[in-house]
Specification:
The structure holds 2 protein chains of 2 kinds. Chain A contains 8 helices and 11 strands. By secondary structure, chain A is α/β, with parallel strands linked by helices. Chain B is 75% helix and 0% strand. At the A-B interface, strand 5 and helix 3 of A face helix 1, helix 12 and helix 13 of B.
């Protein structure tokens, strides 16, 4: 693309903390341009959720600034609601921005909601009651709701949490498609592989400080081991695709392997001195 | 580049042919309209029966003729239908039926809307303190002997004053908005209840005290056309606004965060709904005293029948609430020679009904679909 993609979301030295307590996060600077994906990684309690909520405008930052040039579609983490709306009605509520104050959604809104459900692959859940869905299905409904909103900026709080492998792949592919369509995205995730697959830029939230840079540069053995305090290996390999779609030139890929034992010999080394 | 961007738009937006307005009744529309039409039928049936029933017997055929204006007794002075029946139907029973429908419908709607925005199915219109405020206003007017118009005006004004107090209590910084509202409502409600107790204590036990007590028990028997006119405006206005916001109330019922993320301003919308419900409740108390339970039981019944979608639930609540209060009022004036206060009857019916509902649906009380 010849021209520079417009910046949709910009955080400058942003910080947030509850009164009388240490900052949840601070000094975060990031930009999300149209068509680009930024992933936020960090251990539990490092402020990922707080950061994406600040970026979405649901919480005010206390230092620095947050600027959004577009309406945001926000995908919260799935949790039960009090009323048993149908999955379709939940997705339909994504249309709130497009429906006038005293109106109800019309045929066009219903079509957009159905289209979003088809795109996320959950058209079959249409008439199911939202609280009776599994956590993963609820997550997919919330993603469809944000897709139905048709905004150019999406902010997602751990969109792949609670999904099985198939649905993880489905959601990651969908998000990549949306990015290819020019949608800018900020998401938090626990899975470095997901960040490697999706993100152009990553933000690593260490306690009290943030580190940002290109995904391939920052998602390394050293930085991830330091971030989570466990031993990981980055494995680079060549992916030649599935049998049916074998590519002529295998693509270089990287995956992160977590080591559950402290030393390689720990499990098989019962007889060792 | 141009073609590419077109392709992008096509992939992201729903295909055009999906978007055309459907002429044929879609399953969605049927799903929405059927319960509303059934409830409307119930309301009209009950209203017709209420015009027929009572301690003075008017045959059903006569009622229909009187309503249609085809009876000779009205226009041409014939002998088929005595003028007494005419007067009973049009001047005695009709205003009561209309008022009962309005008050019952308004209270049920207010309860349903508040249950949605408080995200709690045990909320009734009393929770925001408006009915206690309105009770005080009316009781004070009776104590001071200010006459029927001031009775309505005073209770209406104090009902809205209660809402303003709740707003001032909750508008400070901090706290969960919905929790602060409930606490503000409880505080305001008990304050005004204490004032009502003070007024009854000060009242003359032989003249004003009975008047205050009977008014508080709830009745639409003594409603004069003047009182009705004062109360009809606010109740209708509040009802129309809440009904028009029915889908937005769905979005608000997801919680403040979700609503805000979907582009709805939760605080502002909540206050619009609260003010509309306050108009309804203040108007209802002003003209009929405190009628409890309608605003709790009807939304529950309706939600068990049609589910939580407020696009259906709110209209159905209005119609069923109106029907219920017509039934209760008819019973109140037919059962004994004297009138049984409405508030007493609604509580006598409401409490056991609610008990049965809770027993039967105790596992699904949250997401009763």
């Amino acid at each position: 693309m010849p021209d520079v993609a417009p910046v949709l979301l910009e955080l400058r030295e942003a910080g947030f903390g509850y009164p009388g307590q240490p900052a949840v996060f601070r000094n975060v600077t990031l930009q999300v341009a149209a068509g680009s994906v930024t992933a936020v990684l960090g251990p539990n309690g490092s402020g990922k959720t707080t950061l994406v909520r600040c970026a979405a405008g649901l919480l005010p930052v206390q230092q620095g600034s947050v600027r959004r040039r577009e309406a945001v579609g926000f995908v919260p983490q799935a949790r039960g609601t009090s009323f048993a709306y149908r999955a379709f009605d939940m997705v339909l509520m994504g249309r709130a921005r497009h429906v006038q104050l005293f109106r109800s959604p019309g045929a066009g809104d219903r079509a957009a909601a159905l289209f979003a459900m088809e795109r996320v692959g959950i058209a079959a859940l249409r008439d199911r009651s939202f609280p009776t869905l599994s956590g993963g299905e609820q997550q997919l409904v919330l993603i469809a709701r944000a897709v139905a909103a048709e905004t150019n900026l999406l902010i997602l709080d751990e969109p792949s949490t609670g999904l099985d492998l198939k649905n993880q792949v489905r959601v990651l592919r969908l998000l990549r498609e949306l990015a290819a369509d020019g949608i800018g995205m900020l998401l938090s995730t626990h899975d470095p592989d997901h960040a490697l697959y999706l993100a152009d830029t990553v933000v690593l939230l260490h306690p009290g400080e943030a580190q940002q840079g290109p995904a391939a540069e920052l998602l390394t053995e050293t930085s991830l081991s330091a971030l989570y305090g466990v031993r990981v290996s980055a494995v680079d390999y060549l992916d030649s695709g599935a049998e049916a779609t074998r590519a002529a030139v295998p693509a270089p890929r990287r995956t992160i392997v977590t080591h559950y034992d402290d030393s390689p010999a720990a499990r098989h080394g019962e007889g060792a001195p | 580049m141009l073609d590419e961007s077109h392709a992008r738009i096509d992939r992201r937006r729903a295909p055009r042919e999906h978007r055309g307005p459907g002429r044929a009744p879609t399953p969605e529309r049927v799903r929405t309209l059927r319960p509303i039409l059934i409830s409307l039928g119930a309301l009209l049936t009950v209203a017709l029966l209420a015009l027929t029933l009572g301690r003075f017997d008017v045959p059903f055929g006569h009622v229909v003729q009187i309503l249609l204006g085809t009876d000779p007794g009205g226009a041409f002075g014939g002998e088929d239908i005595p003028p007494t029946e005419h007067n009973v139907v049009l001047l005695v029973r009709m205003p009561r039926v209309l008022l009962a429908a309005l008050v019952g419908g308004g209270l049920a709607l207010g309860g349903a809307a508040l249950q949605a925005i408080f995200r709690n199915p045990l909320v009734s219109p009393d929770i925001i303190g408006v009915s206690a405020g309105a009770s005080f206003g009316g009781a004070l007017a009776l104590l001071l002997g200010l006459g029927p118009v001031m009775l309505v005006g005073g209770s209406f004004a104090c009902g809205l004053l209660a809402l303003v107090l709740v707003f001032l209590i909750t508008s400070g910084r901090g706290g969960t908005p919905v929790l602060m509202l409930v606490l503000g409502g409880v505080v305001t409600g008990s304050f005004f209840s204490a004032l009502v107790a003070l007024v009854t204590y000060l009242a003359d036990p032989f003249t004003t005290l009975p008047a205050i007590v009977f008014w508080l028990l709830g009745s639409i028997a003594g409603a004069t056309p003047g009182q009705v006119l004062v109360a009809v405006g606010p109740i209708l206005l509040g009802t129309v606004v809440v009904l028009a916001l029915r889908w937005r109330i769905n979005v608000l019922s997801l919680g403040d965060d979700d609503a805000a993320a979907l582009g709805v301003r939760p605080r502002r919308l909540r206050w619009v709904v609260l003010a509309s419900v306050a108009l309804i409740v203040a108007g209802a108390v002003a003209v009929s005293g405190v009628i409890s339970w309608v605003g709790l039981v009807i939304p529950h019944l309706a939600r068990m029948w049609v589910g939580p979608d407020n696009r259906v639930l709110l209209p159905v609540s209005v119609l069923l609430g109106g029907a219920l209060l017509i039934v209760v009022d008819t019973v109140a004036r037919s059962l004994t020679a004297g009138e049984i206060p409405l508030g007493v009857l609604t509580a006598l019916i409401g409490a056991p009904v609610f008990f049965v509902l809770l027993r039967r649906h105790r596992d699904r009380i949250w997401d009763s679909a």
